[in-house]
Amino acid sequence: MARDLHDKVILITGGSSGIGAATAERCAAAGMHVSLVARRADKLAEAAQRVDAHGRRAHTCTADVADERQVRDAVEQCWHTFGRLDAVFANAGYGLFSTVLETPDDRARALFDVNYFGTCYTLQAAFPKLLQTDGGLRHLLVCSSAASEVGVPMLGVYSATKAAQDAIAGAMRAELVDQGVSVTSVHPIGTKTAFVEAAGGTGMDNTPELMQQSAEHVAKCVVKALKRPRPEVWPSGLTRLALAAGTACPRLSAWVMRRHYRKLKADK
Description:
Layout: E1 9-13, H1 18-29, E2 33-38, H2 41-52, E3 58-62, H3 68-82, E4 87-90, H4 105-132, E5 139-143, H5 156-175, E6 182-186, E7 190-191, H6 194-199, E8 212-213, H7 215-227, E9 232-233, H8 237-248, H9 250-267
Parallel strand pairs: 1-2, 1-4, 2-3, 4-5, 5-6, 6-9, 7-8
């Protein structure tokens, strides 16, 4: 039986654009109130307007998820505004287009600070509030990636951050089940979002059409998972099957990745 999302509250990091903003709008259409967290106040205001258009309340908070104190303040503001917290979508993140050996340490650490530690800070801050909410959904969602399953050439460090997110989601799924908490990892393929710009480099634009999807499609899948919790969300079933085949046949996966990398170099 599908859960009723009406008047429930979700906090979404990276909520000002892309998958975060699209999910916020979908959640509002499903009857949820939304707390949006991101660094840019102007973009947050635009996303909040789209939530308001559905007759739902939107709360915004400017914060950098790489800063634990700012994340905790954002969660406290959400709690003060709504008096409850039913679900959190740790979605904030960005990409980095570079070979592993050419990636400076400071840029790799910065990527982990946002993608991995930002996720940890968000889940740690939100968890007590989920338990305090009477009749709440008690749902933690993590935006990982299809890249969590394979080291993608030119996206190796990014893939590592996504694999780390996937790993903690899997562990928490077992650790929190006895407290009635659902944990879902979300694995999008390439999306035309601000992520592409943040990745730095036109190589992201070479992603085949078959490996791209809209932020709205991912958001639709996330809301389905909120209604009917599941361990993982794969917006592209074809990609899931292909990765499963690659896991079963490592030589095949390595061959595909080599061809992909050579094509990237040829297109430069």
